[in-house]
Amino acid sequence: MEPAGTSVPGAAFPPRRPGTVTGDRTARRPELEIAAHLSGGVLGAGMLIMPPVVAALAGGDSLLVWSGHLLLGAAVSLVLALLVRARVRSTTLAGAVGALLGPWAERAVDGAFAIAFTAGQAAIAWFAATCLLTAAGGALPRPGTGGLLLALGILVVAVLAALGPLSLPAVVLRLRPWVTGVLALACAAWGWPAAPAAGAHTPLAPPGLSSGGAEWLALAALFFAGVGWESVTAVVPKAAAGRRRTAAGVALGAASVAVAYLGLAAVQRLAAGAPAAQDPVSAPLRWVFAVATATVLASYCFTNVRTAARIAARLRPSGRLPAERGPAKAVIAAVGAACCAFACAGAAADGAVPLLLLGPAAAALIGYALAAAAAVRRGGPLLRSAGAAVLLVLVGMTVLAVPLLSGG
Predict the structure, then answer these.
(1) What is the pLDDT of residues 160-203, one digit of tens each?
(2) Rg of the chain in Å (alpha carbons)
(3) Alpha carbons 18 and 338: distance in angstroms, whole number
(4) At what angle do helices 329-346 and 145-163 cross, to 10 degrees?
(5) For residue 25, what are the β-bridge partners?
(6) Does position 150 have pLDDT exceeding 60, yes or no?
(7) Nearest Cα to Cα of residue 155 among 322, 300, 272, 254
(8) pLDDT at position 337, please?
């Protein structure tokens, strides 16, 4: 999710003391503010999508894959938080790396995320379509025209809504993650949608991958669920906390994310092994899950299309808009067309959902790697060491994953 804020490239400022007025309020418990913003930035549509996808790819090792992602995400978030705490104003990830490394870094991150958001919405639409077809047929569908048409329909509705004056009320945006979490927990408890059999042709997992390749694909796709670890760049400068309180806020936020995701994965694993899992979910309940999932995910597509358009608009020299203005309709339409193009590409092979999620994964990898490079360049001794460690892990993951994913 793109954090709100305005970027002031190169603008460093002296840290404020905790408790001073920041805007129209006083930050008395900055660690709680940081934790709430971080967990809210990470927890979203991934709560519905990623548990079934990771279970389909990693099987019994799903908890291990989740744990690895959560540790890496928390490390990235902590490095970013300590890096921006007294060096840049509240801004996006692109604005932060631009202020620390130069305008080229800001444009690189914005460009990567503008493309990645379109692929991500195609993945969301494909998952929603898969749920609807599963409700109709009682089992995961094979990739084909039916799933593509449903995915395109969901995207068209989201883009048309984004082109119009509709905006979700603040209370809806606040409640949406909670509704998503409750729905994800219910789906996990009933083991729905069920993990596909090994070698099955479904949109949730490409057949033919080795066990190692499937686990690496799951870990890479999880970066979609991890888009939001960078949200500390918006809240930490405003919170004006010391190093310990900043670190405590990140730790508390990461723990909240871990409880949510590991809890969902554990519930799903227990449900899959329970005797009741052998009984199919009743048709009425399947439709309740499917329609609710499609509705929630369509709302994420709607808001994310506008977010992608805002990011794309920033790539033009005159693209920065006042906070109250949205992107031009032509930009939104172009983003929508790109989403539909990615959805069509997903119909060409099995495993459309995780393969399309590699788009957001690549963008997160680029953004987090540049942030780690900024820590190495602009941080103190400890921050440089931490940034170097994160950068090595990210590069190492990429080097190890590419041959496994390309060679099966």
Answers:
(1) 999 999 999 999 999 999 999 999 999 999 988 987 876 678 88
(2) 21
(3) 44
(4) 170
(5) 22
(6) yes
(7) 300
(8) 97
Q: Which of 205, 175, 202 is nearest to 54 (CA)?
A: 205
CB of 147 closer than 8 Å to CB of 141: yes
Q: Write down the residue that tokens 């709607």 correspond to.
A: 302
Q: Which two tokens stand for residue 360?
A: 């957001």
In whole angstroms, what is the distance from residue 308 CA to residue 364 CA?
Answer: 14
Helix (H/G/I), strand (E/B), else coil: 225: helix
| Half-sphere exposure (Cβ direction) of 295: Cα atoms closer than 13 Å | 10
Phi, psi of 254 (to 5 degrees): -65, -35
In order of 152, 211, 330, 401, the CA distances from 162 in angstroms are 15, 40, 11, 36
Give 231-279 pLDDT, tens digit per residue.
999 999 998 888 999 999 999 999 999 999 999 999 988 887 765 555 6
CA atoms lying within 13 Å on the CB side of residue 143: 21
Q: Which of 359, 406, 357 is nearest to 126 (CA)?
A: 357
**pTM, entire model:** 0.88
